[in-house]
Structures are given as structure tokens and as C-alpha cells.
Design brief:
single chain; Jelly Rolls; 5-stranded antiparallel β-sheet; 21% strand
Amino acid sequence: MERILPGLTTLPRPVFARVETLDRPSWVREHSHPWVQLSYATRGVLGVRTRFGSYLAPPQRAIWVPPGLEHSVVTTERTQMRGLYIDPAAVPWGPQQCRVLEVPPLVRELIRSVTSLPVDYDEAGPAGRLVAVLLDQLAGLSEVRFSLPLPVDGRLTRLAAELEQQPDDPRTLMELSAAAGLSARTMTRLFLRETGLTFRAWRRRLRLLKSLTGLEAGASVTGVALDSGYTSTSAFIAAFRREFGATPRQAVQGDIPAMTPELSA
């Protein structure tokens, strides 16, 4: 199901809030806007994709999209999301890259309260002060590692797209590089240069991130592990814990350690 965005050219207030409940998987075409977007999933998995990376937010996480960045959005079925469009002048500390952020209970409640305000809330009254508290709290949110850098070389882009469609693809590095018209050594060097990850690390993170959708939907860990290209549940759980610092179930329940850098870093 394609979602159509509201036809805004300017924001009526420093923060414009939206609440959406989506029973079916959805997508939004690639677009950009002159304001910051903070999309928060209370249920389901929310995804944002740019030329440079793919970002996933399972429940209790949010994705920060800076102004002017071309991006598309996808959601799984049964997704509930709260979106904030924010005037960049209200968050001058904001980063210019997409980030997936941990949303602690206080910020969770502030987002819920702000999304219940009228569009033309009184900036000088209690509503305006509530919004100010939320913006102050956003500056301290920590990043979580639910993102995947994407290569820009055409040969690697095509290969990455194939692996995203079939994360359990059993082909080896030698077989994949040959299919891409590259030597294994060249492909390894290009992946590291363009993504900052070795091909092996990139592929592992891809598989683990793709597993989030099935895990959040309630699929068994064993089934998700096999669909992700792992031959055993224990190997999948061990890889997931090494990558994200938590078990698969903890991750989709919102219990996962944040990275050290803060949003305003």
C-alpha cells in the first residue's frame, strides 16, 4: 500500500505531529523535505532508505532524518507510528545523517503527549513548553546500531540488492564476486572502502537486520534464523548478541543497549 504524505510546504508550528496505524505493509516514494523528520514505531518495524544506507526501527526506536535528504520509507504490517516534523531552527544541534535512536520511557511519553496536541498549539502556553521539553530531551538520545551502510559502486549495488532480497543466499564470497564480475580481493577492498565494513561483517549485519521483521511479527527464533541463512539457532543468537549486545527477543522488546555517541555528538 502506498502512503501519501500530507501536502505541507511549511510547518504550522516548530513541531508538527502525526499518528498512523497501518494494518498492511506500506511504502512512501523517495522524497525530501526542508524539515527534520523523527519517525517512531510503537509497533511493527519502520524502515528508511537513502542512497547511503538502510535504517530500521523496531518498536521503541525512532529514525532521525535530516532536512533535504532524499529518502523512502517502508513499514511492515500492523505498524503503529508517530511522526514528528521539526523545524531545523528548533534543533540546531541535529546531525546531518540518518540515525536510529533509542527512545527511553520519558521521551516515549513526551512523544505521545505532543502527538495529541492540536496542530495550532499555543507556543507561549503549556503546550509550547511541553514541546520545548521534548526537543530538549531529543538532544540526548543515543544511537543504536540498526543501520546498514550501502555501497555506491554499481556492481556492488546490484549485488547488495540481490542479497537484501534473499538474505539466506548460500553463495560464497568467491561465487558472489565472480557473479559481480570482480575478483574476491577487489570486491573485499571495495566493500570496505564504501561501507566501512568488510563484506563478511556487512553480510552478517544485513542478515541480522532483516531478521527483525520476522522476530517482531512473532515468528520463532529458529524459523527466523534459517530464513536469515543460519544453520543453527544457537549460531544466530550468538551472532545477534555480538552485533547488538542483546538476544533477538530482547531487541524486539526494546531491551537493547544504546551506542555511546549521543544525538548531538
